[in-house]
Amino acid sequence: MSSHTYRHYPYRRPAELDGRGGRRPVVIAGAGLAGPTLALALALRGVPSVILDEDDTVSVGSRSICQARHSLEVWDRFGVARRMVDKGITWEQGEVYLGDRPIYHFNLAPEPGHKFPAFVNLQQYYVEEYLFERCLADDLIDLRFRHRLVGVQAGADGVTVEVETPDGRYALDAEWLVACDGVRSTVRHLLDLPFPGEVFHDQFLIADIRLASELPKERRFWFYPPFHPTNSVLLHRQADNVLRVDFQLGRDADPEEEKKPENVDRRLRQMFGPDTRWEHEWTSVYTFTCRMMERFVQGRVIFAGDAAHVVSPFGARGGNAAIADVDNLAWKLARVLSGASPAALLDTYCSERRAAARENILNSTRSTDFITPKFPAARAFRDAALSLAREFPFARALINSGRLSVPTAQSGSPLDTPDGDADWRSGPAPGLAMLDAPVANRGGGFLIDHVGPEFTLISFAGRVADLPELPAGVTGLMVAREGSAPAGWTVLHERDGLVRQRYDGRAGTAYLIRPDRYVAARWRKPAGSEVASALRRATGNG
Predict the structure, then answer these.
(1) What is the band of 416 on the pLDDT scale with cuts at 50, 70, 90?
(2) Alpha-carbon Rg of the chain, whole angstroms?
């Protein structure tokens, strides 16, 4: 059915089967979105890794299609994000309908001046292909296809995994094992770890079709449309003229019947009319759960992405949360491996990303409860909000067709230095993601282009003499309209004043940015000793 040509990657006999190889710093189970992203983020910091993938191709079907800005910013460090944007469908607008009439319109990116759009719709198989190509070109990454993890023995100082290949089984020793192997995680099952949560019994049909007709780029969500009057429908456009249509089916639908082409076509004809023509790409019927592990770090085994937590698909929080997980993990794991930080730093990966998972599950569950109300009173509330939304703004705020993914807050992290008594009118507080803005420097048109893979201090000091002393390992960015800066510092020339505006950048203001581009601390006029203290705290050494 699919028009996409799936490349099959070659199996290579591992050195371990011939008595060679040795202990590896990191072994990664799973090559979906999270595993290759983690390997690339580690390689950026000089850490080699092995990725074990039991298959020899990318994910079949479009699957996770909404790639959010914060994921694109992560992938940009590896040189693949622009390719994703160019291939995918950029969208920032959305419409919600009641019946066949729009009730309100929303804009996900009302502010200009960001390197990447709010969302790009791109099929997961393309994202994985681009990540695979980048991994295969990196000497620090050993991406192994048709290597199935079948056993795990975790000790106090390392992990041994047993791997099955076409040539037989072998053992692979590692300092750390990271499970990025999805909602049915083999690693989690082998270690017999619980995965508590809530099961949602409503069923949804995904119909990916190739449609030659010109369609708007915006996301569309219908409640009670005339072509599917008892439930809801979601529409997203993808690359290659592929259109995703999600039909809410209800609890009692027969999934095997619903997936039959003639039944899918019947629903699509009701939606698009008898004269429209399409080709089937991929069809799936799904139910979903919201689950989360009690701890994401289990000794020398670490869980990320769907292996650690899973949410309903409303809001594009699954794949994007997985990318945020490994972006948080990579710099911490690299520091622990190098001895620059104690292993206890990894406990903050668990606490920060569990807090993020709770936030995602809360938002996802609220979306699900609105889209699939469980009780007559809940349905009555939803229908009342929908009926009022066209005329009354307060009712629009009550409508929840999937609150879309944004970087989660990590407020209260032990790595953050709390604000002092300074007056902050705006700007990201400690625990929030940094904000992008345009700059006028040659070689980089945006702030994120100048924030590297380690700690960065952004300073709005008016004079070089007012710059705080930089601790070792921290890069300095001095925001100024002109001039030069001392060693260790780069001058960022402002464009449109948005950097200063978004950071409330009064003279002397400074922000310490973590490697995952979260704010660790901010001050009005810091001394070098204050920056050094915040750095120790942010690296688990304080």
Answers:
(1) very high
(2) 24
Q: What is the pLDDT of residues 509-538, one digit of tens each?
A: 999 999 999 999 999 999 999 999 999 999
Helix intervals (H) in 172-260: 186-190, 255-258
Q: Judging by DSSP bridges, how do beta strands 301-303 and 309-310 pair with one another?
A: unpaired
Q: Quick one: which H or E segment has residue 198? A: strand 197-211
Question: What is the rounded average pLDDT of the residues 455-481?
Answer: 92
| CATH architecture designation of domain 15-89+117-194+290-364 | 3-Layer(bba) Sandwich (3.50)
Closest CA to 90 of 74, 69, 110: 69
Contact between 175 and 26 under an 8 Å Cβ cutoff? The reply is yes
* % of residues, the chain, pLDDT over 90: 78
- Sequence-separated (6 or more) residues with CB below 8 Å from residue 122: 65, 67, 84, 87, 88, 89, 238, 239
Rounded to 5 degrees, φ, ψ at 353 are -80, -25
**Nearest-angstrom CA–CA distance, 371 and 399:** 9
Which pLDDT band holds residue 443 (cuts at 50, 70, 90)?
low
Task: State both tokens at 2.
Answer: 């699919």
**Quick check: 432 pLDDT over 80?**
yes
Judge whether residue 504 has pLDDT over 70.
yes
Q: Are 360 and 309 in contact (CB under 8 A)?
A: yes
User: Among 74, 18, 23, which residue's Cα sits nearest to residue 337?
Assistant: 23
Residue among 437, 471, 444, 451 at smallest CA distance from 513: 451
What is the DSSP-derived secondary structure letter of residue 250? -
* Amino acid, res. 269: R
The mean of the pLDDT values for the chain is 93
Give the per-residue pLDDT at 110.
66
**Cβ-contact 503, 491 below 8 angstroms:** no
Q: With 0-12 CB in 10 A as exposed, 13-18 as middle and 19+ as buried, what is 222?
A: buried
Q: Which of 325, 320, 319, 313 is nearest to 285 (CA)?
A: 313
How far is residue 367's CA from residue 301's CA, in Å, rounded to a whole number?
Answer: 32
Residue 444: pLDDT band by 50, 70, 90 thresholds?
low
Domain boundaries, the chain: 15-89+117-194+290-364, 198-289, 409-542
Q: Is 198-289 a domain of CATH 3.90.1150.10?
A: no
Element (H, E) at 102: strand 101-107
Residues 6+ apart with CB under 8 A from 203: 248, 249, 250, 251, 253, 255, 258, 285, 286, 287
Rounded Cα–Cα distance for residues 147 and 164 (Å)? 6
Q: What are the b/e assignments for 525-535, b being 16+ CB within 10 Å?
A: bbeeebbbbbb
| Domain 409-542 falls under CATH 3.40.30.120 | yes
Q: Which amino acid makes up residue 89?
A: I
